[in-house]
């Protein structure tokens, strides 16, 4: 019997260790390496080795670099508006589609297409459609008598262009998740409320919304964490322009590290980025912790 | 009379409005893809005109497709081949490591740290921004001489997909009743055999779901493929990005390449649609 217990211990660790070790080597160690690099100055195209500078890089980004705050500001605004828009649209659509009717599955399948496309392909397709001069969108607008919009050439409009494409791409996520959540709602509550004379608006506000609220929080957090990583849309649609009007944090890190080869600076700003995401990640993880009963 | 989810009795007029909204949203959703398909069949000179109906408004041509598969055939096929190799292999590796780890976390109790904590720690790896490890990965692959090599990208993609693979497989295995495995073990079957002959086959839908999800993420990935692979390890996303020249974009070229890159993940997502929500919400919502 003891050998069976030892056999069990061997199996359980043998099964778990490969994944753990892989993550240690390929995720944790590189993150630590980034942290050490962030305390150095290393312009890799002209310096053979990094030089220790302590917290200088962090001080630079937090107190001197306007471009960092510009990127953080744009990314935050984009996350806030996009996720809110996706949530509202998704909620609307899920409410509409939760009725039984024919062809429901057709819509469900069609609506997952934006999520499945490679984001860079999405970015380039929209870039072409939204070209201020020869893009099909402006041409259509002009045909019906409206003036074309400076989608990518106006510093005021460009951020909203990115937001619009993101909403196009990710509303289906909110929609499908909420639809699934709606399916799980117990019918009895609604039947009882109907017996008591509640109308559909009251039922939505008093029954549906409170029951759906935890789901809304969870999927919003998931979407916020993913949205902060904004890169492909900026790369493909505006190239962070005009100027730096649509420069996201991830894009800024990419430019510093891979275009300017300032590896020390790039590492520092990516750790600042990481810390920001960590806040949301901790909240999300603690929600998962409460849920799991295993 | 209560219809589904308490939204009240629907009069026929209400149903009509709902349908219109849905049609509008469908047009909004499909327009870019449809436009790309139409553009890919146009002459370069026509490609930016707002014409939609072939033969009536423009002459369809295979120019863009010929260019992709004949004129620039080598690059297109290379990118396609690399995308397939990277996605197939990295997803397989992530699935294997993930299935093993997920099973052990679902079935066995770990004494030193709680199962839940280990699993959550693994999941948290999914949440850091990829750019945070961009520089070390570049340096590591440079030292290992794996820059511009599909193996390097495969290693990185496995790291990307492994946390979710473990977490989802844990979720799937936890949902399976232990009875069959326990019965088999009473009959003398060892733990390993129970895993391979009983648990894995029953969890097959989960295995497929995790594999397909990882495949889609890997296929669509952009940051690491442009940082770590530029010519020999080029994938379809890199090829598309490379069509941005000083002159601007060739609409017809981007349209055809985009369609090629869109078709596989969309088909896979449709096949997977039953588990898609579960996968994307990390098991928070199950359909």
* Relative helix content of chain B: 55-70%
- CATH uppermost class of chain A: Mainly Alpha
Reading the helices and strands of chain A in chain order gives HEEHHHHHHHHHHHH
Gap between N and C termini of chain A = 26 Å
Low-confidence stretches of chain B: 1-10
Query: Which CATH architecture of chain A is right?
Result: Orthogonal Bundle
Q: Order of strands in the sheet with the most strands of chain A? A: 1-2
Provide a count of the helices of chain B.
13
Largest interface, chains and sizes? A-B, 114 and 108 residues
What is the fold-level CATH name, i.e. the topology of the largest domain in chain B? MetI-like fold
* Cα shape of chain A: globular
Main sheet properties of chain B = 2 strands, antiparallel
**Run of helices and strands of chain B:** HHHHHHHHHHHEEHH
CATH superfamily of chain A: MetI-like
Key features of this structure:
heterodimer, A: 294 residues, mainly alpha, MetI-like fold, 13 helices, B: mainly alpha, 2 domains, two-stranded antiparallel sheet, 2 strands, globular
